[in-house]
Amino acid sequence: MIASARVPAVLAVLALLIFAPQVRADENCEPVAEQVATNADRSTLSVATVCDKEGIRSYLMRARTRDGRTDQKTVEVETEYTTMGSASLVDIDGDGYHEVEVRGMCGAGPNCEGELYRIDRSTGKLELFFSGGYSELSVIDGYLVEAGRASCCSWEYHAYRLHGRTGTLDYDDMDFMVEVGADLDSEEENAPARCTFSRSIEGARRVMPPHSREWLQLCELYGDYRLTTPEEASAAGTAGSAQE
To answer: What is the pTM of this model?
Structure first.
């Protein structure tokens, strides 16, 4: 009699457990099932978001080469300080080899923290090869291009040569910059945007011509534009020195 009387009570507790709302331990961490991509050489890359540690968002990456070698890397983020973030598989340059893109906190505009991890084809290891803050990434003419808003009415594109580079690329490794924005020096009422290519030489920015016409697509962000030439920049610098 005692045992049978306990059965309804046990069932009631089980019902409460089954139908009660499921509350996550950390509202800033949302688990994401493993995503897997097969590369051009039949190696694979995967990433999953795991929330099994209090206050930690974990990105679990796995790589497997076509000859069976494996590697694994885990990136852990404290959710108290990075309340938003995600990881996904991308193919930045469309070459058939995927990367893991980890995005972090965003500012008031479209720029967000970001990192790219990829498989080193010579070792089969997962390596961090780019870290920055940007709106989006692309590849043009063998350069990784980091695009981001610089102000309310201007954008910057940071170009990093990919061939022959080792280690992690960041802002200090930039080869050149493209700035597109309002022409503040123009007296025209509706002046075209100003597009300027420049690189750092001995700590100073020097205007340079674009490598090819392919790069001019970046200048078209606001429609019509004027390209700053090295000769124009030199003349402006001479005039500014004379006024001083």
So the answer is: 0.82
